[in-house]
Amino acid sequence: MAPSIRLSPAARSLFDEPLAIAVQGLGPRQQVTLRTSLRDETGELFQACARYQAGADGELDLARCPALPGGSFSGLEPMGPLWALQPQKPFRRLVKRDVQSPFLLQLEVFEGHGEPPGRLLAQAQHERAFLRDGVRRVPVREGRIRATLFLPPGNGPFPGIIDLYGTGGGLPEYRACLLANYGFAVLALAFYGYEDLPKDMKEFHLEYFEEAINYMLQHTQVKGPGIGLLGISKGGDLCVSMASFLKGITATALINGSVANVGAVLRYKDVTIPPLGVNVKRIQVNKSGIADIVDVLNNPLEGPDRQSFIPLEKAECRFLFIVGQDDRNWKSEFFAVEGSKRLQAHGKEKPEIVCYPGAGHYIEPPFFPMCAASMHLLVGQPVVWGGEPKAHCEAQIDAWQQIQAFFLKHLTGKPSVTSNKL
Question: Which residues form the Acyl-CoA thioester hydrolase/bile acid-CoA amino acid N-acetyltransferase domain (predicted)?
Answer without folding.
Answer: 16-142
